[in-house]
Amino acid sequence: MLTIRDLSVEITHGDRIVRPVTGVDLELHRGETLGIVGETGSGKSMTGLAVMGMLPGGGRVVSGSIDFDGTELVGLGDAAYRRIRGNEISMVFQDSMTSLNPTRSIGDQVAEPLQLHRGMSLRAARRSAAEMLALVGIPRPQERMGDFPHQLSGGMRQRVMIAMALICEPRVLIADEPTTALDVTIQAEILELLGELKQQLGMAMILVTHDMGVVVRHADRVGVMYGGRLVETGRTADLFRRTRHQYTHALLASIPTLAQDKDVELFSIPGSPPDPADPQVGCRFAPRCAAATERCRTETPQPVAGPGEGHLFACWNPVDETQGKREVRRFDASGSAASEIDAQRVRLSVVDLRKEHPVSAKGIFGRRRSVKAVAGVSFEVRAGEAFGLVGESGCGKSSLGRMLVALDAPTSGEVLLDGDRVSGLSPRRLGARRAKLQMMFQDSHASLDPKMRIDAILCEPMVIQGIGTAEERTEKARALLAGVGLGASILERYPHELSGGQRQRIGLARALALDPDVLVADEPVSALDVSIRSQVLNLMRGIQRERGLSSVVISHDLAVVRYLVDRVGVMYLGALVEVGATDEVYTRPAHPYTAGLLAAVPVADPDLADAPVDRVHGELPSPLDPPSGCRFRTRCPLATDLCARVEPVLEDVGGDHAVACHFPLQPKLRETTTAETLTAGEVR
Fold this sequence. Notes:
Strand order of the largest sheet: 6-7-8-3-9-10-12-11
Structural class: alpha/beta
Number of helices: 24
Strand content: 15-25%
Shape: globular
Distance between the termini: 60 Å
């Protein structure tokens, strides 16, 4: 269907020439899914945009060929390209919120390709659009036709993007990170949907992603890109079992797993990806490769045949059978502050915390309603302990995190720090207590002031609290940078001059500037590449152990939470449904929702690629009108009439492990009678 030969792309920015793609060769066969993986800046997305004829301003194909079923796309005129783009070759973009037009209804946007390419009337196109929305799993598609993008959840918007891409039944679909920002449950649904539609429509698909687990389960073949070049290709199972390129081997070793030993550092690839404007000689991975020789730095390796059919790799010193696993590095426990603290002392207490957001009622006599973001959450974090919060988007994790650090006031309930109330107080009354509660935000780019240098950003918290002289604050900033693995030269730079991993380290350093007792980290590595993510995770784990810091880690990545925390709470629709020691919850989940989340985690193991997945199905209900009784019952395979009538309460299943479920997967320590459960539910 698609043959790419020696493709090279250049983008001109003033006097600077960027080469994001260099000499790429690819083939895509009818009915096949080709996965393309690699770090940010490796050229994955730019290869897809070159196929679509949608390179950014100043971009052009400088050499090579893109043959689509006998039609050469390089040099094709605009009018001819428009007949192919969106009709025979379509693309699902990474960010559905910015890719959809916020001023036009969903129905009009999905119907538009049919009007442009097939000449359909608006009425006929909208009828077909409603059918396609139903096909991609949008409930009540006729009602959704009039909605606007901001009225839909992230998963629903992604489904709309897929509907737009498939409405003309293209022969090739390019899916660019289609599930990056989605929860594991929605991610699994979207990828299964794409696979089913590919079979129904007879498409070929290019799946661009940095998630190796996604590739193993959903791609027939895989190509690994680094520095704009394709460094290894082959059948998915063969490439994962018999990896040959040192970069592929390092990338796989950097992935945290659900079985990760928390006392062992994650492997991380040193350094950063190459600058695409730098015309480097030799292998582009050589500066970061432990096996690199002088030949690697001076000669560019060419693809050679690997051990399997169609397996190619470009490496002078390939991985062999004797290389095996990398050396295990354990965290140094000497000098750790964790050994000097009272592990039984309760540092942070959350008592029946609730947060409701009023929603304007429609009409004069409209009923006042509210979004119940957090609904009666209680837990404790002990000194030196790391507590995790997991759950789907919209379950209230981030709302809860903002209340923990007093950025938002709760509707009711309390947050206590060392027994003193911090929730609902004015900034003046909070005083020094605010300094002891700090937050590491998800988006480091948006949370750092672009007009301030790094030295000012790190010193600002100390200035506000009146700590030290200017010289002392600068010295503390240097120490903070050293603590997060950055040099003092960073102090004179601005956020936009740093990489994503460097900005995330600055966000952590700023959060530690006031020596807090509790750190709340909201999705701290969700926007980072695999290799950079492992560096930041090792850093966070090391700082936790070194300082004896109490922390709350919020994430939808269950492998990240397993690595960072000692105890975990699982949230669903504003409430905690399971709490316990991390190892206990992960190995013996007691709530069906927890078990479904764990089952949906993609694993980078070809031996498990075809294993059945008993994941959670359906969409998260609206927090504006949550189900009666058990909130999870509308998606639970075990639900009965009791679940609709009575809200379950957290009950012990042993070993500091509690679950709120009438029919837990693990036996309760004491069976509660229906009458007792009913009374508890009515009291709540």
